[in-house]
Amino acid sequence: MQNLRIVVSIPGEADYDVRIGQEVLAGLGEQLRACPATAKASQVLVITDANVERLYLPQAMEALRNAGYEAANLVVPAGEDSKSLDVAGEVWNAMASVGLTRDSVVVALGGGVVGDLAGFTASTFMRGIPVVQAPTTLLSMVDSSVGGKTAVNLEAGKNMVGTFCQPAYVCADISTLNTLDEREWTCGLAEAAKSAVIDSDEFFFWMTDQAQDLFARKPEAVAEVVKRCVVFKAGVVAEDKTESKGVRECLNYGHTLAHAIETLAGYGTFSHGAAVAEGMRFAAYLSERLIGAEPDFVQAQSALLNALGLPYLDWTADPHDILVAMKHDKKARAGKVRFVLMRDVGAWDLVAVDDADVLDALAGYFSQTADERGRA
Ligand SMILES: NC(=O)c1ccc[n+]([C@@H]2O[C@H](COP(=O)([O-])OP(=O)(O)OC[C@H]3O[C@@H](n4cnc5c(N)ncnc54)[C@H](O)[C@@H]3O)[C@@H](O)[C@H]2O)c1
Questions:
Q1: pTM for this one?
Q2: Per CATH, which fold does 4-179 belong to?
């Protein structure tokens, strides 16, 4: 299988390459030597987590050293708790103690947690040094490694402190995905399905056609879905780099209910992707009620999610509690909950919905039978 290469062009930023394929991690050092922002560096700090350390750190270090880089590494605990100011402080201190300068490079080797933490610390260390994303989860390949959002969490909420900082290069080695468990796999598939629904009929029907192969992790289908998601996200980010024009909001499709589910069920009870898939189902239901989406769309989206191993979520809660949780989301404005709704595949609207309509829709949605919700 040939490697795929995409050039991400965002106004006001240096273009960067995303390379997707099997074994691209082995060429990481050479790729950095070919990248203008990292070619002349001598020192590289690889930041990874304890799970990925075992699996892929030796290969990444060898690739960097073979290309003549002086490579050090820092391993943080796996999991969302590492996206904290405490851990960021440890990372900044480690950067200083290994002697990174403004000519050095940080490589984020891992999932979205490592990507966000490494991106944030690199973009603030000495007022910013280049970061290279080497994503190893499907979610981080299809979403978080491209687009330049970095963050850590505060007690007050997720991603409260962060920067916009585009990576210098993205190295997406899809062979690393073979070691992901099914929960993490379907988590990434949910974000990919979200992209397909927002993007176009072409992407949506391709994904519907390829759902079995994607679930089975067939390399050609996986590389292609990563490519399509990167192209889609790069297009959105190019129009709205700092989330100020409303375009980037489309990426929140399914996330309004998803965040409420994660809050009420307890963070980690369901995978983020399972919550997003349920949020997409609810958003489609709301779209049918409020902005005239056709039942065929609701049905087709549900069939895609089912085929990707994302059946409806066996969870419910009091609509009032869900509404309160939705309003805590930092994206609620002027008291109304805002949803990304779909008139059809590829046609989204941002809609501020009155509380009474949200409550009514939640009651209606959760009173459906399992078959109706899952449209199995
Ligand atoms: N910056 C953005 O635009 C953006 C977008 C979406 C999500 N995010 C953030 O991404 C984070 C979630 O990312 P994630 O889902 O990748 O989670 P994660 O980074 O926690 O990774 C999930 C788990 O998989 C393990 N893992 C990683 N690669 C592996 C591999 N190849 N084989 C086996 N195990 C592996 C990790 O150690 C971890 O236990 C959240 O913090 C979220 O806020 C950021």
A1: 0.96
A2: Rossmann fold (3.40.50)
